Amino acid sequence: MSPAPPTRESKATRTRARILDAAAAELVEHGYSGSSLRRIAEGAELQTGSLYFHFETKDALVLEVLRETIARATQDLREALDDLGPKATPGEKLRTAIATHTRSLHLSGARGYAVARVAETLPPALRQRYASAAAGYTKLWNQLLVDAQRSGDLASELDVRMVRDLLFSAMNGTLAYRGQGGNRIEQATQTLIAMVLRS
Question: Closest Cα to residue 104, out of 131, 79, 132, 129?
Fold first, then answer.
């Protein structure tokens, strides 16, 4: 007979996943300020009070949705870059990064959409905590862009941070093509790559 603790842990893990999915859907629909813990609880098939066994505050729940999504995006990007092998050029790495970010965004469902929608609308204190959680991902992109500049794949006169921010906005903007088919999203991705890279 299986021991009880793993069963409880498995149930808690499933419940937590339902809460995060419901919270992401709520953020997509209503944004940060309009999100309701009551509706999140209903979406997760829980009583509102039960949420507090998993997350003490709304901000803690929102931050975890964002943190987990960024952590997954970071893992996906690192794996995609590793798959290129050690001989990959900076241009190839940046091209892969753009394609991977866009693909991960669309595969993550409501969670990716939630990050794209609310990250810039958070209260200052929560936005700072999110920025700290996303620091590793941001640093990885900074290095990709700097390397591409040094190799001549990205115009040297451009400000790397500005390119990064504009690129994130553009990649996240491909969510507008949801429901129009994978070819449309792929076309948008390739358009972005062509706009950014010299070759």
Answer: 79
The encoded tokens of residue 109 equal: 């469902």
Does the pTM surpass 0.85? The reply is: yes
Question: Per-residue confidence of the chain (199 residues) as pLDDT tens digits?
Answer: 344 455 555 888 889 999 999 999 999 999 999 999 999 999 999 998 889 889 999 999 999 999 999 999 999 999 999 999 999 999 999 999 999 999 999 888 899 989 988 988 999 999 999 999 999 999 999 999 999 999 999 999 999 999 999 999 999 999 888 877 768 889 999 999 999 998 6
> How many Å is the maximal CA-CA distance in the chain?
66
Which residue range is the domain that position 167 belongs to?
4-196
Contacts of 59 (CB under 8 A, 6+ apart): 123, 126
Measured N-to-C along each axis, helices 90-107 and 160-173 cross at an angle, to the nearest 10 degrees, of 40
Number of domains present in the structure of the chain: 1
Give the domain CATH number at 180: 1.10.357.10
